Amino acid sequence: MEVKYKVEVKEYSLKVAEKDAESISQPVTVFNMLKDNFNPVQEEMYILILNTKNTVIEKHLVSKGGMSSMLITPAEIFRPIFLTNGNKFILAHNHPSGQCEASIEDIEFTIKIKKASEICGLQLLDHVIYSSDSFKSLKKEGLL
Is the separation of the CB atoms in 87 and 122 below 8 Å? Predict the structure, then answer.
C-alpha cells in the first residue's frame, strides 16, 4: 500500500510601522487621521492596527453599511489584526447624520468586541465615532 501526501510551504510577511507613522495617544489623533475619509452617505467602520508602541501599522476599512447601520462580525475585525501581527487596535466609524453620540448598538458592539479581543490576547484601546467636524471617544465617555 502506498500513501501519497503533499507538503506545502506557506510564506508569511509581517507589517511593521512606517518610519514616520503616527503614534496614537489621544482620540483627536484618530479623528485627524480619518476626517478626510468621512462619508456623508453611508456608515464606514475602520480599524487602526497598532504595535506595542501605539504606532499605526495599518488603517483598514472593515465595512461599509447603510445610512444608519452596518453588519460586522468579530472575524472581520480580528482577521486584519492577526494578518498584520498587531496587538492593539482602535475602532472608528462615522455617523453620516453628523451626530457623534453612541447608540445602544454602538455600545453593545464595542463591549462584545472588547470581550472577544481579551480572549484573543488583543487590546481594544478605544472606539471613536466621528463626523466631518467632530468626534466622540467611547473611552473618554466612560463607555469602554
Answer: yes
Geometric angle at alpha carbon 102, from 77 and 134, rounded to 5° = 95
Most distant CA pair in the chain, distance:
71
User: How are strands ordered across the β-sheet holding 56-64?
Assistant: 56-64, 44-50, 88-94, 123-130, 135-137
3-state secondary structure of 100: coil
Of 105, 106, 113, which is closest to residue 138 (Cα–Cα)? Answer: 106
Q: What is the pLDDT of residues 57-84, one digit of tens each?
A: 999 999 988 777 778 889 999 999 999 9
Could you tell me where the beta strands, DSSP code E, fall in the chain? 44-50, 56-64, 88-94, 123-130, 135-137
pLDDT digits (tens, 9 = 90+) for 77-102: 999 999 999 999 999 999 999 999 99
Domains and CATH numbers, the chain: 27-137 (3.40.140.10)
Burial pattern 103-136, b for ≥16 Cβ within 10 A else e, equals eeebeebbeebbeebeeeebbbbbbbbbbeeebb
